[in-house]
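> tool_call: predict_assembly(chains=two)
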Amino acid sequence: MTLYPAVMDLSPSDDAARIAQGIRRRVLAHVLANNGGYLSQACSSAELLAALYGQVLRLAPTDGALHPPAFESVPGPNAPRVSGGIFHGDPGPELDRLIISPAHYALVVYAALIEAGRLDEAALDQFNKDGSTVEMIGAEHSPGFETTTGSLAQALSTAGGIALGRRLKGESGRTFVFMSDGEFQEGQTWEAVQALAYYGLESVRVVVDVNRAQCDGPMDTVMTIEPLTTKLKAFGASAESVDGHDIASLNRALERPTGKPHFVLAYTDPVRGVPLMNNRRPVLHYVRFTSPEERKEYEDFYEQLLVNDSEVVG
Amino acid sequence: MNNRLDVEIVTRPHVENFIDWSEDKPEVLVLSADLTNSCEVGKWRDTYPERFFSMGMAEQNMLSFAAGLAREGFEPWLHTFAVFLYRRPLDQLQMSVAYPNLKVRLVGFLPGITTPGGVTHQAIDDVAVMRAIPNMTILETGDATEVESVLDVAHSIDGPVYIRMLRGEVPRLFPREEPFAFDRARILNVGGEDVGSPTDVVVLTSGILTEEAIRAIPALEASGVSVTHLHMSTLKPFTDPTVLTALTSARSAIVTMENHLTTGGLGSAVAEVMAENSISAPLHRIGLRDTYAHGASQSYLLGEYHLDAMALVRTIEQVLGRDLDIDESDLAEVRVAAVHSSAKVEAL
């Protein structure tokens, strides 16, 4: 095995880089243990979530790595909502919020929370297990999730309402939204952008994993969304594209004040760090091993990854 | 006999009432989708501009946006035509608002055939759709008193509420001192000693069709038919024990009347109560029978689709198997609201 993931080149002293590395390692281990999972999403978004949790977000600390609560009930009369936002610490008027839109990135989000020291690493043992909140498609009771957004493109609108509500209450904290690029095929996303711009909600900062891959395959074979930066600017938002694997660029773009709702389009590689997945192109949305041989290749790769990690860290 | 139905007609009851009601409730916001004056909140907007948010013709975003505001402790009151609250943005209504059980108030105007706007504007399936949404409460207004007092009821509910709202010229059928009571039937007539006493027919009505039943019932009684009449303004939940008591008292038939499809609305709710309680009287549901409607006046459509006072008479004649010798002249006079009434900002 000679394919070394590019992320290995990053300085281990950089906490965000360490988080990104850990996200890939944990998700790959999980996919191996469960014979399947959303691996390409970890490859594309690892630096993006690492930049958020490691550098950008102003969140209150949690009381150590929290255990995920068992699932109690869906919300309803006499059944209060349980928020996965507790893993982001207690909210405060000056603090940031993070609303996660692509709920199928849940495994990646859980891995990021573990690396950020907010979620007990044993939580992944409960992933997709009956009675657990660590669900395969995150909902608002799942670690890191405040809203139920598995039906895509609703989170941006809800985040707009949250940001408007926070402005009415005089809060200064920002409202971040993590989105996937496929959501820009949905009409509601554009309704939301025009409303964010109309109400000048500059506290809304959106980072998009533009991995150009979706369920049916490469985005260009399904429905194109480009030119995304031009479209967003035409709708009255500010937008810039960055290398989604460059943590320093992500950090700079997310922090840059623009006076408008701001979209950081993080162009990413859906196989970054796990180049073996090139063999699975064009469909990368969900990995399930097709043969014992393929599985063995990924196991060997994972072993190599651990060796590299220990060498870098050691 | 040709009595005139002696009721006060209130012009735009929602306008001032909602402004007064909102004054001491800073958490109450209004979201509108380009139908602000049509939904009688133009003056509200001018009175509380800092609490009014125009969302444009973009209902999907409006529903999810409202969810965000509700999560921050506000109480958004969405004002638009009913069809635009549940048809186009149904997924957003379900996932953003209903699942998390948020205090979002959906004020839906133009229920059923109350508009000549035709099929695109006529909410004939809204109750059926909303009844299938967990956490949702459904309230329907039948007169000016209910238009005014539904606000307190909706405000008190810890979850999403859908209101079938009336506008323009609205009759006051119920005294002001008898406001909308949550999950409580209004007993408008009893065929015997009280609501549980045996009676020939039990009639349950909702919304604007209650007025039609009120027109017919004196003539039915004059023809020797005893009628117990309940007005239902809470359609979900549907658990008032008075309903069961009344249904049990029917000797010949139970009749429902709704400004809606006969599928999924009041008639279906009554059928469910009857089935679950082994009530064997025949049930006749007056409403739109598996059909869309079209653009025409309310009074024309009430006649065309057999939703009016005479439809109730004919249904009961059929049930009893005898001619009651009642014609239009025996019914209380029809109240015809002009299509181009000045109480509405447009002809819709």
